[in-house]
Every structure is written in C-alpha cells, then in structure tokens.
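Quality-control log, excerpt.
Job 1 of 2 completed; input and output follow.
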Amino acid sequence: MPHFVLECSESVLGLTDPGGLMRAVYAAAESTGLFARGGVGGIKVRINPYRYALNVDAHEHFVHVFAHVMEGRTREQKKDLSERVVRAIRALLPGVEIIAVNVADFERATYCNAPMVHPDGAPG
C-alpha cells in the first residue's frame, strides 16, 4: 500500500545504481514493521529523475522522497520512517547534500484501488 516516489536529479542516477537506491528505500521502509510484506498492501518504490532542476546554492544533486501511507500511523512512526529513509539514502549518496522525505497520509475513506472495485459495478 505505501508508495515511495523518489524525485531526483538525473545526475543522481550516475552516482548509484537506481535499483540499489530503490532497494535501500524499500528496506528502510520495511525495517519499520509498519507495512505488509507483500501483496496489494506491500511497499512500492519508484523513481522520477529530472533532467532540468534548479536548486538552492546551485547544488547539482538532490533526492526528495514523497511517501504516501494509509492514515493511522502516529507522528512518531512517520518521523522514524522519514529518518530511516534519509539515513539509507545518505549511506548510498554521501556527497549529496539535498536529501529529504515527506510522509503524507492517504485518507482511508477516499482511497480506492483496483481490487476494491467489483467488475460488475457492485459496491465494494
């Protein structure tokens, strides 16, 4: 269920293996014990690299992770998640100064995915 969308400068992909970067974020999220280990509720990670970006002080490299999780986690759990992901990325990219994570909640009442919708149109 949780989605981790890494937005980064395209240059970051030249500093580390994209698959390794995604696996590091996955492992950091999994280490919290907050998420299902598989299936529809499992952790999902993807990368959106940017060729063009303008950053403070002309830093070339950046990584920002937008974490979207189902509501119900405490502020402390989300802070721990953010810190674990930042540490994991920093370990892979020690020369990158701009690394950030934002955790936002999906609202359970309005969230929907394909398995929740019946093909015949009947209510879920």
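Job 2 of 2 completed; input and output follow.
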Amino acid sequence: MTLYTMHQEPDGGAPPVLVAHGFSWSAFLLAPFWLVAQRMWMPAAIVFLIDLGAAAAARAGALQQGAALLSMVVVAAFVGLEGQELRRKAMARRGTRFSGVVSGANEIEALARSGEGDRAAGTGE
C-alpha cells in the first residue's frame, strides 16, 4: 500500500490530485525534465545548472569525470527523494489545499477509498 496526500483545487470542481509518498524513480532518472513537467521552474534551473557546471568542470579538467558523475547522481537522488515533497509545496503555493491522506495499491484504488472515486468517474454529485 502506498500513502497519498490529496490536494483539492480552490474551486473544488475537479477531483483531488493525489501525490504519493516515497521515492520517485521518474524524478531521479529525469530530474530537470520532471521538475519542468511539475512546473517547478527554479528547482529545474538549479538542477540543470549544477549538472551543466559539473560537466563543464569535468571537460575543462578542473574536476575528474567520476566526481562530476557522482555530483550529478547525488543531485538526481535528492530530487528523487524529495521530489514529491517539492511538488506538494509547489501545489500549496499555487493555491491547492490539503484535503487528506489516503492509502491504496495505486492512485485509482486510493481515490476510490477516499470517496472521491465516483466524482472522478463522473457518476457522483
């Protein structure tokens, strides 16, 4: 079972957005692109600049290639570990409100357990 936090848009018309707790493999593997997809522009720019700087330093000989790669992996691991929390904070800044915690094997089951499953399917209210 995975824990999800539910976040509701201010108007309340759309079904809640579920954000899973835990490591995000997509955020780890594609850190700057994942951040852009989540509309987190500043963290994406920072990660991109760190990666670019490490690659440039390695190419110039100021940093060994192994150390440059290690720094990129560490930054990606941080984004993978903290990405969902960064996403929650970005959603709160955009005005969504926290509406609860729910668990489920996947997002569909968690949404059904929350009682919002009928609304998301268009059969409720």
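Post-run check on job 2. Confidence is low (pLDDT under 50) at residues 120-125.
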